[in-house]
Amino acid sequence: MIAIQNSVVEMLPDSRKRNLSRGKRLANLGAVVGLLLICVVRSSNVYLIPHEKEDLPQYRFRDIIRTVENPTLLNYGFLDGGFYTVCDVVPTCKYFCGLNSRAEEIAQGQKQCLEEGTTDFIVTRDATIDEELYECVATATFPFEGKDRTYYLYALKSLNFS
C-alpha cells in the first residue's frame, strides 16, 4: 500500500509533493483506491475480465473477414457491436447497423443491402438470414446484457468459403 502511495506521489509535480503531509497522502491514496473499487463493482463490463480478446466474436470473425482484400461488412439488425472497429472496416451501407427504433427506412435499407449482395460479409445476432447470396461461415456464442447471444457471420457465396 505504501509503495502505491509513493508511486502516486512520484507522479505529482515537485510543488505539489512538498505540500502533502503523510496523512494527506494516505487520505488521497484511500480515495483513489476507493474510487477504483467503486468503478470495478459498478461496471457492467466486469464479466469480460476473465476473457481474452480472442474469445470475443468480433475478433474471431475478424480473422475470417481479413482473408478478403478490402472487405465490406453489414451489421444486420442490431446496434453496432464493435465489428467495424475490430475488423478495420468502414461501413459502406447507409444503414450500417440497427438502431433502437422501429424506423421502417432502416429495416428496408438493410434488407436492400442484403438482397443486392452489397457487402462481402454480414453479421447478425440471435437471428439467421435466409438469403440465396450468402452462406453462414462462422458462429460464436458470447454473453451480452446478461444472456448468451449467438452471432452469425455470413459471407457472399461467391467468395467460396465452403
Index terms:
162 residues; four-stranded mixed beta sheet; elongated; alpha+beta
Task: Please give the structural blueprint.
Layout: H1 2-10, H2 14-18, H3 22-42, H4 57-65, E1 73-75, H5 83-87, H6 104-116, E2 121-125, E3 134-144, E4 147-156
Parallel strand pairs: 1-2
Antiparallel strand pairs: 2-4, 3-4
Summarize, please:
This protein has helices at 2-10, 14-18, 22-42, 57-65, 83-87, 104-116; strands spanning 73-75, 121-125, 134-144, 147-156.
Structure description:
The model has no long low-confidence stretch (mean pLDDT 83). The chain has 162 residues and is an alpha+beta fold. The protein is elongated. Strands 1-2-4-3 form a 4-stranded mixed β-sheet, with helices on both faces. Helices cover 38% and strands 18% of the residues.
Radius of gyration: 23 Å
Which range does the strand content fall in?
Answer: 15-25%
What class would the helix/strand composition place it in? alpha+beta
Shape: elongated
How many extended strands? Answer: 4
Strand order of the largest sheet: 1-2-4-3
Largest sheet geometry? 4 strands, mixed
